[in-house]
Amino acid sequence: MHSQKKSFMDNLEETLIAAILGFMTLITFANVVLRFTAGTWFGDYMKEVWGINGGLIWGLEATSVLFAWLVLFGMSYCVKITAHLGVDSVTNLFQAAMRRKLVLLATLASIVYALLLLKAGWDYYANFANLPATTGKWFPTGFEEMRPTSYRSWYEVDRIPMFDWLRFIEPMINEGEAYNKLPRFIPYVILPFGAALLLYRLVQVFVGISRGTRATLIVSHEAEDEMNEAAEKVEQET
Q1: How far apart are CA 59 and CA 164, in angstroms?
Q2: Looking at residues 135-148, what average pLDDT do you find?
Q3: Is there a domain that residue 10 lies in?
Q4: Which domain holds residue 188?
Q5: What is the CA angle 165-124-119, rounded to 5?
Q6: Is 130 within a domain?
Q7: DSSP letter (8 states) at residue 147
Q8: Torsion angles phi and psi, residue 136, rounded to 5
Q9: Total domains in the fold of the chain
Q10: Is 177 among the domain residues?
Q11: 55: which DSSP letter?
Q12: pLDDT per residue over 185-230, tens digit each?
């Protein structure tokens, strides 16, 4: 059996999720080591050479940001692999044709929710990126007029330091002013991007259910039944 070639979006999600988990693990591990070695030769060396005294002061904030990224990437990825939990006890009472219509209706409601989330995520992010927010209460009807007094790109995070390799953005978005800490529009970009990715995956599900290539939006009991049957078979063989 030939394996199905993964798309660019599949590779992007899986790579970023793995990278985020790796960075969270490394930062947490480094913080534990630094805290337990404070006052030792290694701790003194880290303090003198790297200026690190007893731990990474930005470690907690960095892992919190990465965890938020992981959640927002994970919600779309779980839609793709049918990993979201749900209750299907009501829909299973109906025949297959009616059940399919109910699943389509639930997916359509999820798409509406993703659209609302995308609008809210963009409007919140735009406040920190010198970009216009959308007009309209529920769904975007256009873009607001930008004024110099509405620019908020100078907002910084609390503790994560600014990386030198990112300073090329300062003349483009911060009028040449240097950042002491990482500007908020960088970690906050996951808000509209994650919502857009969720919307993309939900539309894929809707199309798949409409064409009959996919049966459900949530975890199916069929997989659980198959696992139980496999376990029973193993017991019978032993």
Answers
A1: 18
A2: 83
A3: no
A4: 86-221
A5: 120
A6: yes
A7: -
A8: 100, 145
A9: 1
A10: yes
A11: S
A12: 999 999 999 999 999 999 999 999 898 888 788 776 554 555 566 5
